[in-house]
Specification:
Layout lengths: L1 E7 L6 H14 L3 E6 L12 H15 L6 E4 L1 H4 L6 H11 L4 E7 H6 L6 H7 L1 E5 L6 H4 L9 E3 L7 H9 L10 H9 L6
Helix pairs in contact: 4-6
Bound molecules: adenosine-5'-triphosphate (ATP).
Length: 195
Protein backbone atom coordinates (compact mmCIF):
# COMPACT_ATOMS: atom_id res chain seq x y z
CA UNK A 1 0.00 0.00 0.00
CA UNK A 2 1.06 3.55 -0.61
CA UNK A 3 0.54 5.42 2.64
CA UNK A 4 1.10 9.15 3.08
CA UNK A 5 1.81 11.11 6.24
CA UNK A 6 0.71 14.74 6.50
CA UNK A 7 1.70 16.55 9.68
CA UNK A 8 0.80 20.02 10.81
CA UNK A 9 -0.19 22.30 13.63
CA UNK A 10 -3.67 22.53 12.12
CA UNK A 11 -4.29 25.75 14.01
CA UNK A 12 -6.76 25.69 12.27
CA UNK A 13 -6.91 23.20 9.37
CA UNK A 14 -7.97 25.04 6.20
CA UNK A 15 -8.92 24.68 2.55
CA UNK A 16 -5.23 24.59 1.55
CA UNK A 17 -4.75 21.45 3.67
CA UNK A 18 -7.93 19.87 2.29
CA UNK A 19 -7.03 20.62 -1.33
CA UNK A 20 -3.46 19.39 -0.84
CA UNK A 21 -4.63 16.04 0.58
CA UNK A 22 -7.18 15.44 -2.20
CA UNK A 23 -4.71 16.55 -4.88
CA UNK A 24 -2.01 14.27 -3.44
CA UNK A 25 -4.41 11.33 -3.28
CA UNK A 26 -5.06 11.49 -7.02
CA UNK A 27 -1.63 12.63 -8.16
CA UNK A 28 0.40 10.17 -6.10
CA UNK A 29 -2.05 7.26 -6.24
CA UNK A 30 -2.25 7.08 -2.45
CA UNK A 31 -4.19 4.31 -0.70
CA UNK A 32 -4.17 5.76 2.81
CA UNK A 33 -3.33 9.03 4.56
CA UNK A 34 -2.32 9.72 8.16
CA UNK A 35 -3.13 13.25 9.31
CA UNK A 36 -0.85 13.88 12.28
CA UNK A 37 -1.34 16.74 14.72
CA UNK A 38 2.05 18.03 15.78
CA UNK A 39 3.12 19.77 18.95
CA UNK A 40 3.21 23.50 18.56
CA UNK A 41 6.31 24.73 20.43
CA UNK A 42 5.80 28.32 19.30
CA UNK A 43 2.24 28.50 20.55
CA UNK A 44 0.99 31.99 21.31
CA UNK A 45 -1.78 32.87 23.78
CA UNK A 46 -4.49 33.18 21.09
CA UNK A 47 -3.70 29.82 19.53
CA UNK A 48 -5.94 26.79 19.92
CA UNK A 49 -5.30 24.09 22.54
CA UNK A 50 -4.09 20.62 21.60
CA UNK A 51 -7.62 19.30 22.14
CA UNK A 52 -9.15 21.90 19.84
CA UNK A 53 -6.49 21.34 17.15
CA UNK A 54 -7.05 17.59 17.36
CA UNK A 55 -10.82 18.03 17.12
CA UNK A 56 -10.47 20.31 14.08
CA UNK A 57 -7.96 17.93 12.44
CA UNK A 58 -10.59 15.21 12.98
CA UNK A 59 -13.09 17.39 11.11
CA UNK A 60 -10.53 17.87 8.32
CA UNK A 61 -10.11 14.09 8.15
CA UNK A 62 -13.89 13.67 7.85
CA UNK A 63 -13.95 16.22 5.00
CA UNK A 64 -11.15 14.34 3.20
CA UNK A 65 -13.14 11.12 3.62
CA UNK A 66 -16.40 12.54 2.31
CA UNK A 67 -16.08 10.72 -1.03
CA UNK A 68 -14.53 7.51 0.34
CA UNK A 69 -12.59 6.39 3.43
CA UNK A 70 -8.95 7.32 2.97
CA UNK A 71 -7.59 9.40 5.86
CA UNK A 72 -7.16 8.75 9.59
CA UNK A 73 -6.27 11.14 12.38
CA UNK A 74 -3.17 10.52 14.51
CA UNK A 75 -2.46 12.23 17.83
CA UNK A 76 0.65 10.09 18.42
CA UNK A 77 2.96 13.13 18.31
CA UNK A 78 0.93 14.91 20.99
CA UNK A 79 1.19 11.87 23.24
CA UNK A 80 5.01 11.77 23.17
CA UNK A 81 7.04 13.12 26.08
CA UNK A 82 9.11 16.14 25.09
CA UNK A 83 9.45 17.43 21.54
CA UNK A 84 8.23 15.25 18.70
CA UNK A 85 10.13 14.87 15.47
CA UNK A 86 8.91 13.84 12.02
CA UNK A 87 11.64 11.21 11.79
CA UNK A 88 10.22 9.52 14.91
CA UNK A 89 6.68 9.67 13.54
CA UNK A 90 7.85 8.07 10.30
CA UNK A 91 9.71 5.33 12.19
CA UNK A 92 6.55 4.68 14.19
CA UNK A 93 4.42 4.49 11.02
CA UNK A 94 7.02 2.25 9.33
CA UNK A 95 6.84 -0.11 12.32
CA UNK A 96 3.06 -0.20 12.18
CA UNK A 97 2.97 -0.81 8.43
CA UNK A 98 6.25 -2.52 7.51
CA UNK A 99 5.06 -3.52 4.02
CA UNK A 100 3.85 -0.07 3.01
CA UNK A 101 5.58 2.47 0.83
CA UNK A 102 5.56 5.78 2.76
CA UNK A 103 5.21 9.27 1.32
CA UNK A 104 5.64 12.45 3.38
CA UNK A 105 3.49 15.37 2.18
CA UNK A 106 4.86 18.83 2.94
CA UNK A 107 4.28 22.39 1.82
CA UNK A 108 7.14 24.28 0.25
CA UNK A 109 7.81 26.38 3.37
CA UNK A 110 8.20 23.26 5.51
CA UNK A 111 10.42 21.62 2.92
CA UNK A 112 12.79 24.58 2.88
CA UNK A 113 13.13 24.20 6.65
CA UNK A 114 13.92 20.49 6.43
CA UNK A 115 17.72 20.86 6.69
CA UNK A 116 17.04 22.08 10.25
CA UNK A 117 14.82 19.09 11.04
CA UNK A 118 16.24 16.26 13.10
CA UNK A 119 17.78 13.56 10.87
CA UNK A 120 16.41 15.04 7.65
CA UNK A 121 18.62 12.75 5.54
CA UNK A 122 17.20 9.78 7.43
CA UNK A 123 13.67 11.00 6.65
CA UNK A 124 14.44 10.67 2.93
CA UNK A 125 15.46 7.04 3.51
CA UNK A 126 12.22 6.22 5.30
CA UNK A 127 9.87 7.75 2.73
CA UNK A 128 9.44 9.61 -0.53
CA UNK A 129 8.98 13.33 0.02
CA UNK A 130 6.30 15.17 -1.98
CA UNK A 131 6.51 18.96 -1.84
CA UNK A 132 3.60 21.24 -2.72
CA UNK A 133 4.22 24.82 -3.84
CA UNK A 134 3.19 27.68 -1.62
CA UNK A 135 4.43 30.72 -3.42
CA UNK A 136 2.81 30.24 -6.82
CA UNK A 137 5.16 29.53 -9.69
CA UNK A 138 8.45 29.91 -7.85
CA UNK A 139 8.75 26.29 -6.87
CA UNK A 140 10.71 25.06 -9.90
CA UNK A 141 13.22 27.89 -9.61
CA UNK A 142 13.72 27.14 -5.91
CA UNK A 143 14.39 23.45 -6.66
CA UNK A 144 16.63 21.28 -4.47
CA UNK A 145 19.55 23.03 -2.86
CA UNK A 146 22.49 20.95 -1.70
CA UNK A 147 21.29 20.47 1.84
CA UNK A 148 17.65 19.74 1.02
CA UNK A 149 16.72 16.07 0.98
CA UNK A 150 15.64 14.60 -2.37
CA UNK A 151 11.99 15.26 -3.12
CA UNK A 152 9.42 15.49 -5.88
CA UNK A 153 8.07 18.99 -6.33
CA UNK A 154 4.48 19.67 -7.39
CA UNK A 155 2.99 22.89 -8.66
CA UNK A 156 0.31 23.91 -6.21
CA UNK A 157 -1.10 27.35 -5.69
CA UNK A 158 -3.59 27.68 -2.88
CA UNK A 159 -2.78 30.94 -1.10
CA UNK A 160 -4.28 30.32 2.31
CA UNK A 161 -2.53 30.04 5.66
CA UNK A 162 -3.57 29.37 9.24
CA UNK A 163 -1.75 32.57 10.26
CA UNK A 164 -4.06 34.64 8.05
CA UNK A 165 -7.14 32.81 9.33
CA UNK A 166 -6.15 33.46 12.97
CA UNK A 167 -5.54 37.11 12.10
CA UNK A 168 -8.96 37.49 10.45
CA UNK A 169 -10.77 35.68 13.26
CA UNK A 170 -9.02 37.84 15.87
CA UNK A 171 -10.23 40.90 13.98
CA UNK A 172 -13.79 39.53 14.08
CA UNK A 173 -13.84 38.92 10.32
CA UNK A 174 -15.31 36.01 8.36
CA UNK A 175 -13.11 32.97 7.75
CA UNK A 176 -15.77 30.69 6.27
CA UNK A 177 -14.40 31.08 2.73
CA UNK A 178 -11.01 29.74 3.88
CA UNK A 179 -11.95 26.65 5.91
CA UNK A 180 -14.36 23.73 5.42
CA UNK A 181 -17.87 24.47 6.83
CA UNK A 182 -17.50 22.07 9.77
CA UNK A 183 -14.31 23.85 10.86
CA UNK A 184 -15.85 27.31 10.45
CA UNK A 185 -18.68 26.14 12.72
CA UNK A 186 -16.19 24.75 15.28
CA UNK A 187 -14.17 27.99 15.36
CA UNK A 188 -17.36 30.02 15.85
CA UNK A 189 -18.95 27.77 18.47
CA UNK A 190 -15.73 27.53 20.53
CA UNK A 191 -14.89 31.22 20.14
CA UNK A 192 -11.37 30.35 18.92
CA UNK A 193 -8.71 32.92 18.01
CA UNK A 194 -10.49 35.81 19.69
CA UNK A 195 -7.95 37.92 21.54
P1 LIG B 1 0.77 28.69 9.90
O1 LIG B 1 0.29 29.82 9.02
O2 LIG B 1 0.30 28.77 11.33
O3 LIG B 1 2.26 28.46 9.79
P2 LIG B 1 -0.01 26.67 7.95
O4 LIG B 1 -1.09 27.30 7.16
O5 LIG B 1 1.35 26.58 7.33
O6 LIG B 1 0.07 27.35 9.38
P3 LIG B 1 0.30 24.04 9.09
O7 LIG B 1 -0.67 23.25 9.90
O8 LIG B 1 1.51 24.53 9.77
O9 LIG B 1 -0.53 25.23 8.37
O10 LIG B 1 0.71 23.21 7.79
C1 LIG B 1 0.81 21.81 7.71
C2 LIG B 1 1.49 21.47 6.39
O11 LIG B 1 0.69 21.96 5.29
C3 LIG B 1 2.88 22.11 6.20
O12 LIG B 1 3.71 21.17 5.50
C4 LIG B 1 2.59 23.32 5.33
O13 LIG B 1 3.71 23.71 4.57
C5 LIG B 1 1.48 22.79 4.44
N1 LIG B 1 0.59 23.83 3.95
C6 LIG B 1 -0.25 24.61 4.68
N2 LIG B 1 -0.93 25.45 3.90
C7 LIG B 1 -0.52 25.22 2.63
C8 LIG B 1 -0.85 25.79 1.36
N3 LIG B 1 -1.73 26.78 1.26
N4 LIG B 1 -0.21 25.31 0.27
C9 LIG B 1 0.69 24.30 0.38
N5 LIG B 1 1.04 23.71 1.54
C10 LIG B 1 0.46 24.17 2.66
Amino acid sequence: MRRAVFGGSFDPPHNGHLALCLFARELLGLDRLIVSVSKNPFKGPADASDDNRSAMAGLLTAEINSARPFAELSTWELQQQGPSYTVDLLRHVAELYPDDELVLLVGEDSYRQMPQWRESREIAKLCDIAVFGRSGGELAAASCGETLPPATLFDFDMPVSATEIRRLAAAGQQVSHLVPPSIAAYIASHGLYRV
